Amino acid sequence: MRKSGYRLGLWLHLGIGVLIIVLLFQVADRYRFRLDMTEENRYSISDPTRNLLKRLDADVIVEVYLAGELPANFIRFQKSIRELLEEFAIYTDVNFDVKFVDPGEAASTRARNQYFQGLINQGLQPTNLNYTIDGKSTQKLIFPGAIISYGGRELALNLLKGNRANGPEEIINQSIEGLEYEFANALQQLAGTGRKRVGLITGHNEPDTSQLAGLNNLVLTKYDLFRVNLPTRTTPITGYDLLLVTKPTTAFSDREKYLLDQFVMKGGSVAFFLDALSVNMDSAAGDGTVAIPYDTRLANLLFKYGVRINQNYVADLNCGDFPVVAGNLGDQAQIRMLPWPYFPIITNYGKHPVVKNMDAVMVRFASTIDTVKAVGVEKIPLLMTSAHSKVMGAPVTVSFNDLQSDLMPEKFQSGPRTVGYLLEGTFTSLYKNRFPPQGFKKEEMVEDGVKNKVVVIADGDLVRNELSLEDGKPLPLGVEPYSQKTYANEAMLMNLIDYLVDEDGLVETRAKEVKIRPLDKVKVKQERTKWQVINLVIPIVLLLLFGVLKMIWRKRRNKY
After folding, report:
1. What is the pLDDT of residues 156-187, one digit of tens each?
2. Are residues 459 and 366 in contact, defined by beta-carbon separation less than 8 angstroms?
3. Cα distances (angstroms) measured from residue 148 to each of 47, 153, 187, 217, 302
4. Model's pTM, two decimal places?
5. Per-residue model confidence as pLDDT tens digits over 41-66
6. Burial zone of 13 (CB within 10 Å; 0-12 exposed, 13-18 middle, 19+ buried)
7. Nearest 5°: CA angle at 156, between 155 and 160?
């Protein structure tokens, strides 16, 4: 009886233990709890991303084209992608299928090349890797990106992003920091039902459609775009989430400024891309030409919002090139590409998530921006020139002769200068305590606005694409026609637009930081033997010691 009762007790304990485990699993499945103990919360996803994942109502298929034999830094990149997507799958109720594919596994060279071309046609950008494994040099073409399928739609996503001025490890790290935003933004784009409406202000001699083709195509990938002819409009601007003011060259009337002002007061965001001075590059030969101020009459409106665009140019030693005729060979002009300091290359950014880990952006004939007092408005710098800058106030003489002499660093000592600001807060109307323009009623005017966002960039050319030298067709934003270099103008504009119209706050996920904690190579070399002993010998000794002690304890217990 005693023996059977003992066995029954064991079975009861076992059954109770199994029931407790099953109950714990049920509770854990219903009330999910995850603890991220890393300093920078690298394994946690933000609330906006979680909310987006919970709204998904169709299965998601993600094919990541980063598999096979890879160097250590790309293996770390691959691991980070896998961990993030596994985290995504936890917070959604739909089937979230993730596949890692090696594009180089095709059976033949022809099949592999066709596969590669298919990925390129879908929008994935290849990267040519050169690395060494076990002393053997290896070259491999990889596609560090993914294709996401949702609701019958597909979207190609390039994941290797960052400031190319940094080294490979830092670029990988910056790409890891941006993974959550890239995937969440893609899912938002695929799952979005109502597209936001963006208005393009016209009527002030802005660049023509061929020069804004890149901007138009960029906006239309995610939003609906409409042309808003301001001079002919007599009613308040409504029905738009964002207005773009792109390189106007003629004056805004008081009525037009009132329409823009009231749009901001009522919660609509505006992005201004403005040139302070006009220069004719066809007259820059010889002694050069003088830059003439544009009179857009927007200065008082921007001043009320907290910034002032100065009538100057900022030159930078970190600059792009400009083609100059250096002579003739027979009847053929000889073109040389020379550094042109009026084309600063921006690699110095503010701390805001919009420009975090941004690659180089080129601006042309940009001006400096000063901040002024505006109660309730925070002025956040976005774009800044390098420390080797020089500010030239009006009248500014622009001459190709400047390219013929060396650009001396001692003449570029003005330090970093800001050419782009984000303004956030509650704006006060320019027309507060004033009568509105004729045709508008005082009682309908909003004098103190709701919380809002305004962007001011002192370069109208940032939104203008160049034309191909071969066929005159529009080039993508940021592509330089002579050298064919591609700058990150397109990515930066997309980030700005996303932030200005984003109600979910996904852009804030770009603030995620993943710290690199490299080992001290000198210390590793000096203490190598000590740590080998600690990690290899001591565990074995402790295991043997535990075995001996347990054997001695069992002998003593059986003895008595």
Report:
1. 999 888 777 677 788 888 888 888 888 988 88
2. yes
3. 21, 8, 8, 21, 41
4. 0.80
5. 666 778 888 888 888 888 999 999 98
6. exposed
7. 140
